[in-house]
Amino acid sequence: MPAQATASLKQTPLYRLHKSLGARMVPFAGYEMPLQYPSGILAEHLHTRAQAGLFDVSHMGQLRISGVDPAGAIETLVPGDIRGLGAQRMRYTLLLNEAGGILDDLIVTRLQSTLFVVVNAATTDRDFCHLRDRLGPALTIDRLDDRALLALQGPMAAAVLERLAPGTAQLPFMTAAETTLDGRSCLITRSGYTGEDGFEISLPAAGAPALTERLLAEPEVRPIGLGARDSLRLEAGLCLYGHDIDETTTPVEADLNWTIGRRRLEESNFPGAAIILRQMAQGPARKRVGIRPEGRAPAREGAAIVDLAGGEIGRITSGGFGPSVGAPVAMGYVGAAHAGEGTLVALSVRGTARPAHIAALPFVPHRYHRSHPNPPPSPFPQSPGQARGGKG
Amino acid sequence: MAALRFTKDHEWVRLDGDFAVIGITDYAQTQLGDVVYVELPEIGRRLEQGKAAAVVESVKAASDVFAPVSGEVAEANEVLAADPAKVNSDPMGEGWFLKVRLADPKELDALMDEATYRHFIEEQP
């Protein structure tokens, strides 16, 4: 592990708490962040799927867009239906460039008269400039750098939060509520990025350490680092910006067509619409897929995907060991001819071709909270296209 | 007690007659975290001191394991294929990696003894 200068790294409001919990801190997107706590990535991952994990995602960018018709304005930059969002409703969407490439993935929440937006840490500065330059003087973009963001994820998350803030367990998936939590004003959303039920909690930085300690005092809750956050989102088939999606990938190639609103398709007035519509009609030349390596050897980002004749057909964009799957899992792009589920491929790992096959995403079923108390079994196979959590 | 030596890359080597048993240290397994896969060289391969000999993969990354001594691979720990977590639970015992036929016992002189290694890891950041 190369030594990295930590002098210029930023810290979140929970830095001291992470250190006191014994976290191993690593540089990530300009921040010094907890990779893992003493129990380790495997235990943290499995605990989140079994009970509840608390993540510090304060490094992510929080923005507020206010002014004249913010929903209509942001629709000029994203393909999602934002005008159609009811108050307190939220949506996963994509900032696109003129070629239909993805500048960032983000969550937009419609509040009373403003939009609350959460973007990736590494792209916050760029997104802020992009929004400010493109939305024009009728809109104001505020960076909410004085706010922390926590994610409470897992099947016990709702029971835990209900104890602190009665009523929150009833909040439907992808809905926000401005409420009081342990005496502090918070914006709570039913969302997350682990494939599990859960919440994200935005609050002023000053109150974040005390609220975190209050949540960690609940018996079901343990602190979870970036290592498990990555393996959880990979098993859930969710994209990591800069790895699985970037400016060179379109929503169609990334299998994110479901983020494009029906009305938006008809209007075709989002950046790159002509290219995206053509790809939707003709099928993309390449597509993001799930990949299951056979055996136990993980295939990491950058590994070549080859066909049975040995010709390269793509690259792994995220890969590692899936603790809940109990085996290696990966995502990557392959040519359309090889994108079918079950297609046999090989992965080049350290010069050796290892057998693998194209697999359905997600690797672990999503367990988001639906408003129906006893939902009937879905007749449709589960895919990331059905619903998409928050960014934490 | 057979001689135990250590490298600055956190491999250990224990002398066993003409053979040397090789593994990674407790410090190394702590740094790596949960081990999920170990790739070992085939029997008969010639290893060169200081060159990559095996790969150990944790949940988050793959790392090279370097040969602490030169020699021919005589045995690889088959247990690790089914139970790589042995590297975490017993790195100096059941979690061993390789047994090699030692090419040059003098190479051991360049390695650290246990007291020196202990001092060495105390100075790690």
Description of the molecule:
- The complex is a heterodimer of chains A (392) and B (125).
- Chain A has a six-stranded mixed sheet.
- Among the domains of chain A are: 132 residues, 2-Layer Sandwich (Gyrase A, domain 2), CATH 3.30.1360.120; 75 residues, Aminomethyltransferase beta-barrel domains (Elongation Factor Tu (Ef-tu), domain 3, Beta Barrel).
- In chain A, helix 2 packs across helix 7.
- By secondary structure, chain A is α+β, with helices and mostly antiparallel strands.
- Chain A contains nine helices and 19 strands.
- Chain B is an alpha+beta fold.
- Chain B has a single domain, classed as RNA polymerase II/Efflux pump adaptor protein, barrel-sandwich hybrid domain (OB fold (Dihydrolipoamide Acetyltransferase, E2P)).
- Chain B contains four helices and nine strands.
- In chain B, the strands form two sheets. A six-stranded antiparallel sheet of chain B has the order 1-2-3-9-8-5. Chain B has a three-stranded antiparallel sheet with strand order 4-6-7.
- The longest helix of chain B is centred in the C-terminal third of the chain and has 9 residues.
- Chain B is globular, with a radius of gyration of 13 Å.
- The mean pLDDT of chain B is 95.
